Amino acid sequence: MKTKDMLQSHPRRHPLAESLAPCVDSCFECAQACTHCADACLNEQEHLPHLVACIRKNLVCADICAATGTVLSRLPEADDQAAKALLQACLTACRACADECERHAPMMEHCRICAAACQDCATTCETLLGA
Protein backbone atom coordinates (compact mmCIF):
# COMPACT_ATOMS: atom_id res chain seq x y z
CA MET A 1 0.00 0.00 0.00
CA LYS A 2 1.23 3.45 -0.86
CA THR A 3 0.37 6.29 1.49
CA LYS A 4 -0.42 8.57 -1.43
CA ASP A 5 -2.89 6.03 -2.85
CA MET A 6 -4.50 5.57 0.53
CA LEU A 7 -4.92 9.31 1.10
CA GLN A 8 -6.32 9.78 -2.41
CA SER A 9 -8.84 6.99 -1.87
CA HIS A 10 -10.42 8.86 1.02
CA PRO A 11 -13.97 10.05 0.22
CA ARG A 12 -13.10 13.54 1.43
CA ARG A 13 -10.62 15.05 -1.00
CA HIS A 14 -7.98 16.81 1.04
CA PRO A 15 -6.38 19.80 -0.71
CA LEU A 16 -2.94 18.94 0.70
CA ALA A 17 -3.05 15.17 0.03
CA GLU A 18 -0.09 15.46 -2.35
CA SER A 19 1.97 17.14 0.38
CA LEU A 20 0.67 14.97 3.21
CA ALA A 21 1.77 11.64 1.73
CA PRO A 22 5.54 12.29 1.69
CA CYS A 23 5.34 13.77 5.18
CA VAL A 24 3.42 10.79 6.56
CA ASP A 25 5.92 8.41 4.97
CA SER A 26 8.95 10.31 6.27
CA CYS A 27 7.44 10.53 9.78
CA PHE A 28 7.00 6.76 9.98
CA GLU A 29 10.42 6.09 8.40
CA CYS A 30 12.04 8.45 10.87
CA ALA A 31 10.23 6.85 13.82
CA GLN A 32 11.56 3.47 12.74
CA ALA A 33 15.10 4.77 12.18
CA CYS A 34 15.14 6.49 15.58
CA THR A 35 13.83 3.40 17.36
CA HIS A 36 16.48 1.27 15.69
CA CYS A 37 19.22 3.81 16.41
CA ALA A 38 18.30 3.94 20.10
CA ASP A 39 18.42 0.15 20.28
CA ALA A 40 21.74 0.02 18.43
CA CYS A 41 23.19 2.71 20.71
CA LEU A 42 22.18 0.65 23.74
CA ASN A 43 24.31 -2.16 22.32
CA GLU A 44 27.41 0.01 21.82
CA GLN A 45 28.77 -1.16 25.17
CA GLU A 46 32.09 0.68 25.14
CA HIS A 47 30.49 3.96 23.98
CA LEU A 48 27.24 3.74 25.93
CA PRO A 49 28.00 6.50 28.47
CA HIS A 50 28.57 8.93 25.57
CA LEU A 51 25.33 7.93 23.84
CA VAL A 52 22.80 8.72 26.57
CA ALA A 53 21.76 12.03 24.96
CA CYS A 54 21.52 10.33 21.57
CA ILE A 55 19.28 7.57 22.92
CA ARG A 56 17.00 10.07 24.66
CA LYS A 57 16.67 12.23 21.54
CA ASN A 58 16.06 9.11 19.43
CA LEU A 59 13.22 7.99 21.67
CA VAL A 60 11.59 11.42 21.85
CA CYS A 61 11.87 11.86 18.10
CA ALA A 62 10.48 8.38 17.41
CA ASP A 63 7.41 9.03 19.57
CA ILE A 64 6.73 12.48 18.10
CA CYS A 65 7.22 11.25 14.52
CA ALA A 66 4.88 8.29 15.04
CA ALA A 67 2.19 10.53 16.55
CA THR A 68 2.59 13.08 13.75
CA GLY A 69 2.34 10.44 11.03
CA THR A 70 -0.77 8.98 12.64
CA VAL A 71 -2.52 12.34 13.01
CA LEU A 72 -1.64 13.40 9.46
CA SER A 73 -3.03 10.09 8.17
CA ARG A 74 -6.43 11.21 9.44
CA LEU A 75 -6.47 14.12 6.95
CA PRO A 76 -6.57 17.05 9.34
CA GLU A 77 -8.45 20.21 8.46
CA ALA A 78 -6.36 23.04 7.02
CA ASP A 79 -6.85 25.06 10.23
CA ASP A 80 -6.14 22.14 12.59
CA GLN A 81 -3.93 23.77 15.23
CA ALA A 82 -3.06 20.45 16.88
CA ALA A 83 -1.74 19.04 13.59
CA LYS A 84 0.30 22.20 13.02
CA ALA A 85 1.69 22.00 16.56
CA LEU A 86 2.64 18.36 16.00
CA LEU A 87 4.36 19.25 12.74
CA GLN A 88 6.33 21.96 14.50
CA ALA A 89 7.23 19.59 17.35
CA CYS A 90 8.27 16.96 14.83
CA LEU A 91 10.43 19.46 12.98
CA THR A 92 12.11 20.51 16.24
CA ALA A 93 12.65 16.94 17.47
CA CYS A 94 14.02 15.82 14.12
CA ARG A 95 16.51 18.66 13.94
CA ALA A 96 17.72 17.99 17.49
CA CYS A 97 18.03 14.26 16.87
CA ALA A 98 19.80 14.78 13.53
CA ASP A 99 22.31 17.13 15.16
CA GLU A 100 23.04 14.63 17.93
CA CYS A 101 23.29 11.63 15.60
CA GLU A 102 25.60 13.53 13.24
CA ARG A 103 28.07 13.85 16.12
CA HIS A 104 28.32 10.05 16.26
CA ALA A 105 27.88 9.31 12.55
CA PRO A 106 31.60 9.09 11.73
CA MET A 107 31.89 6.11 14.11
CA MET A 108 28.41 4.58 13.96
CA GLU A 109 26.54 3.80 10.76
CA HIS A 110 23.19 3.58 12.54
CA CYS A 111 23.60 7.19 13.68
CA ARG A 112 24.43 8.29 10.12
CA ILE A 113 21.30 6.58 8.79
CA CYS A 114 19.18 8.02 11.59
CA ALA A 115 20.50 11.55 11.03
CA ALA A 116 19.58 11.31 7.34
CA ALA A 117 16.07 10.07 8.17
CA CYS A 118 15.63 12.91 10.68
CA GLN A 119 16.81 15.50 8.18
CA ASP A 120 14.39 14.17 5.56
CA CYS A 121 11.52 14.23 8.02
CA ALA A 122 12.36 17.78 9.13
CA THR A 123 12.35 18.88 5.50
CA THR A 124 8.95 17.33 4.75
CA CYS A 125 7.45 18.79 7.93
CA GLU A 126 8.80 22.22 7.05
CA THR A 127 7.40 21.90 3.52
CA LEU A 128 3.97 20.92 4.81
CA LEU A 129 3.95 23.74 7.37
CA GLY A 130 4.61 26.15 4.52
CA ALA A 131 1.87 24.71 2.30
Automatic annotation (TrEMBL):
Record-linked Pfam families: Csp
CDD domains listed in its UniProt record: DUF326
InterPro entries, per the entry: Csp_YhjQ (IPR005560), YHJQ-like (IPR044543)
Protein name: Ferredoxin
Lineage: Bacteria, Pseudomonadati, Thermodesulfobacteriota, Desulfovibrionia, Desulfovibrionales
